[in-house]
Amino acid sequence: MTESQTLAMWGGTNPILPGLYPDPSVCRVDGDDGTWFYLVNSTFEYLPGLPVHRSRDLVSWELLGHVIDRPGQIDLSTVRDSGGLFAPTIRHDGTRFLVVCTLVGGAEGASGNFVVTADSAAGPWSDPIWWDMDGIDPSIMIEPDGSMWAHGTRLAPLPEWAQQTEVWVRRLDTETLVPDNEETVVWSGALRGAIWSEGPHLLRRNGFVYLLAAEGGTSFHHAIVVARAKSPLGPFVGNPANPVLTHRNLGRATPVTNVGHADLVEAQDGSWWAVCLATRAWDSCDLLGRETFLVPVTWENDWPVFAPGEGQLPQNPKGLQGLTGSEHLPADSFDHRAAAGAGDVIAVRRHPAEIVTETGVTGAFRLQAGNGLTDSRPAFLARRLANLSTRVQIRLVDASDGVRAGLALRYSSTAFVAVTAGGGTLSIDAASGDASVGSPHIPWLTLPQGAGKGILAFDVQGTGAVAVWEPEGGEAVRSEVLDISHLCAEKNGGFVGVTFGALAVGDSGSADFTDLREEL
To answer: Which residue among 198, 263, 286, 512 is the active-site one?
Structure first.
């Protein structure tokens, strides 16, 4: 049985957030309107950044908004591909929400760890308070008395082995939200030789403080480990069962790999759950990037047991039974998500509002023409690819003279495939992931004079995709199968997944689109 055939057998409610939703963090808030769970994810070079979802049952999630939701709050203009916003943590102190995160490669020295706050998870969120310290993956533990502990990870300054990291802990001032200078290093791995102990979270339960961390790097050897102590400052003792969850022992042909980077939450009924990242690959190509999965957790001898009775990610976690998943919020007068189709709409290193405007037609949007996908800030409005066997499409309504407009699949500025109309032709542009090779521009079809309106689509089947053109009033035309196996971390490195979206290339002008969506 091939990996692709095995993958076809995987189905169910996991992942709970399919597509590019890595590094999940979750918290629970009990309020006058009942109990909600809130979840945040990394977004790297995409804006708006750090989406916040909420759920009643931990399975069905609704997008509330984004933590980095406006120009001037965080500058991503200089971040590299797969740089930007890494590994956020979300917590609630009884009054306000707090999100801590790492910015990698920010402009003018504004990089490192920061914290933002909001009264509502839907925002608005504050400007960042920067933490003057090295490292990545910051987190916060809030004690029952309201005091706080900041913690995170970094490469060990005097490593005993390559890629050794250490987890640090500091008290956090609850007013200024700035960590104390006094610091304790509490962890360097479950085993000697363990690499990249990252994504740490501290939590208190039944007289113990637990340290949850990921180790082994964020690829095939990724794993979740647990340690415990009587104090946030340690000393921590590792769980004899470590790693408490990993898929590396299942081999590379298993349909879901790279399991790690978890966060724990207790539900109102006393049950425990973890969210974590994992990857669904097709012939070792992780097109979708790292996704968010849900795992049931029980406790034995004051140690957490992940996926009890299974020892691996369940296909159909039940979540909290008898609770509705979400209650929809009213839309704004112009919502880029609604205009472009349901889902989380993003742009590369700038906010969608900088390049998208209304057209006056319900469900349509106008994309200002600009640079192509090899540029650091392309004229590209995207959504996350969520399935490995799927169709993504957009309807091109109109375009200015001199503008090439269409649909693209993007992994990075050097790895993408696009089909665009303009100048009387349909063309396919592809970049292999090697910046030195460039982006071949291949004429595909000649269009009749005045033509160019219609549906552009990609029928994706794993690592192959077929470009489709459905002109208004005409018959659909299909390309030969295009190899898209380069649109993944396995070939190009990085931490993202494929996005698909509207592209408008030109020195001036715009293109009007509607119906940007994915359908199985």
So the answer is: 198
